[in-house]
Specification:
495 residues, alpha/beta, Cobalt-precorrin-4 Transmethylase, domain 1, Methyltransferase, Cobalt-precorrin-4 Transmethylase, Domain 2, Rossmann fold, 5-stranded parallel β-sheet, 5-stranded mixed β-sheet, 20 strands, binds S-adenosyl-L-homocysteine
Length: 495
């Protein structure tokens, strides 16, 4: 049976600008054909099971020619596959979407089009430029500055000037001088406000403004590279006043997260919202260990140290033919909100949730809850967890038994290059150790100015030992780390 092709516009980069429909269709793709303008984080959303085909294009240098892209779409659909063609921005706006549909139509292959947010709408908005404004203009025009094969730039400058609207040029950085000269020589006011937006909506977005007469110098002096837009029009004067994106408190701050995927995503969400440029590259991964389920009715309390621990414990419980009712009569303690949330997912509301990640805080909370000397508690935790919690409980006469249900395995961190980062965040000493080892393996020095933000003192000890300039989170939680990073950086920038 013939498959189907979905042409999806991925938007200009910010993963939040991928439409819900686009994300849903992408999640069920069997083949994804994508190119260079699709944002890094959207690429990370491509299903792992799908066949991924990179047809990345560069101006003047087309690694995969257009006809071949169309052929790939056709072939895969004829194989019966559910094919997603993922394009930057919107798929029809200078995106050759129409050309890619022609062969499908000719062969009777079914297709759907999921529009995307176009860069001349989104990158301008992120640069604080409303493309129309009643006080300044009554139209906006999207223009390609790409030259045809014969080298001609086919623009009717007189008509463009007469329209008196906002002009947004795409694919035009290389031909900026010619465009500026064309507009000036046909009578546009040399003082006409212009703006350039590079990598719009991405954490590394850059924006520059200049009058038309200085536009070329501005592009050259700042080394503007593709993808970028050139905006010509009086609305550009608003970009300073409406500069909301550049004004985000951590705008562009490059942060590396090394914790397990689960905790990284929580921290990343907080930092993303403040405009940081966050890369998550987990250094460790929890892996379940086989364990024999003890007789649970012997214990007064069971304590979980992480969401992964909760998951592995319940998997073991189910495998033993039991369920949440096996915890009947036990008090349940969880370190941190994420662990408590994981328990809720299995129908258990934790009785104790110390918000700090330290073993001492957990021991104190357990003792304060009325667990007396002689009582038995079960600590469901990773192998090689710090001994603080059982030691403190035993010192109080409590019989603390450890049940090792998982271990944290090091990950290769193959793509690790610490050089671009200003900060690296660590949530455990094992993350620090893995990070330092991975730098060494890759022949990369830990950069002198790289700062480490650590969740607590034991992690900070490991970071200092690795030679990093180290800071400790004010509160030993992921939210506390986010707040600390914000405070340290906003104070430093003296905004
Ligand atoms: N279909 C795309 C445009 C494809 S043409 C869309 O709807 O946005 C490629 C041009 O789009 C680039 O040369 C650049 O001018 C512009 N562009 C795409 N993504 C951009 C971004 N994130 N920031 C600035 N310009 C971008």
């Amino acid at each position: 049976m013939t498959g189907k092709v979905y042409l999806i516009g991925a938007g200009p980069g910010d993963p939040g600008l991928l439409t819900r429909k686009g994300a849903e269709v992408l999640a069920s793709a069997e083949v994804v054909v994508y190119d260079r303008l699709v944002g890094r984080e959207i690429l990370a959303m491509m299903p792992r099971s799908a066949e991924l085909i990179n047809v990345g294009k560069h101006a003047g240098n087309h690694p995969v020619p257009q006809e071949q892209i169309s052929q790939i779409l056709l072939d895969k659909a004829l194989e019966g596959k559910r094919v997603v063609r993922l394009k930057g921005g919107d798929c029809f706006l200078f995106g050759r979407g129409g050309e890619e549909l022609e062969p499908l139509f000719a062969h009777g292959v079914p297709f759907e089009v999921v529009p995307g947010v176009p860069s001349p709408i989104a990158a301008t908005a992120y640069a604080g430029i409303p493309v129309t404004h009643r006080d300044y203009c009554s139209s906006v025009h999207f223009i390609t500055g790409h030259k045809k094969k014969d080298g001609a730039l086919d623009l009717d400058y007189e008509a463009l000037i007469r329209l008196d609207g906002t002009l947004v040029f795409l694919m035009s950085i290389g031909n900026c001088a010619e465009i500026a000269e064309g507009l000036l020589s046909h009578g546009m006011d040399p003082a006409m406000p212009c703006a350039v937006v590079e990598n719009g909506t991405r954490p590394d977005q850059r924006k520059f403004t200049a009058p038309l007469r200085d536009l070329v110098d501005c592009v050259r002096d700042n080394g503007v590279i593709s993808p970028a837009l050139i905006i010509v029009g009086r609305v550009c004067t608003l970009s300073e006043r409406f500069d909301w994106f550049d004004a985000l408190p951590l705008h562009g701050l490059k942060v590396l997260l090394t914790s397990t995927a689960g905790s990284a995503s929580r921290l990343k969400a907080r930092l993303d919202a403040w405009g940081a440029d966050v890369t998550a590259l987990p250094a460790i991964e929890p892996r379940p260990l086989p364990f024999a389920l003890p007789a649970l009715d012997r214990y007064a309390l069971i304590a979980f140290s992480s969401a992964a621990g909760v998951r592995f414990f319940f998997e073991g419980l189910f495998a033993a033919g039991k369920d949440a009712r096996a915890l009947n009569g036990l008090r349940v303690a969880a370190v941190g909100r994420a662990t408590a949330e994981a328990l809720r997912g299995y129908g258990i509301a934790a009785d104790l949730v110390p918000s700090s990640y330290s073993g001492a805080a957990m021991a104190e909370a357990i003792l304060a809850s009325g667990v007396k000397a002689g009582a038995r508690v079960l600590l469901a935790r990773p192998r090689k967890a710090l001994p603080e919690l059982p030691e403190k409980l035993r010192a109080a006469g409590v019989e603390a038994e450890e049940l090792f249900i998982y271990e944290t395995a090091p990950l290769p961190m193959e793509r690790l290059d610490p050089a671009p980062f200003a900060w690296v965040c660590f949530t455990s000493p094992s993350c620090v150790e893995r990070f330092a080892a991975a730098c060494k393996e890759g022949g990369k020095e830990i950069p002198a100015g790289l700062k480490a933000l650590c969740i607590g003192e034991s992690t900070a000890g490991a970071a200092r030992a690795a030679g990093l300039e180290t800071f400790v989170s004010a509160e030993a939680t992921l939210d506390g780390m986010a707040e600390t990073l914000l405070r340290l950086n906003t104070e430093r920038l003296e905004r």
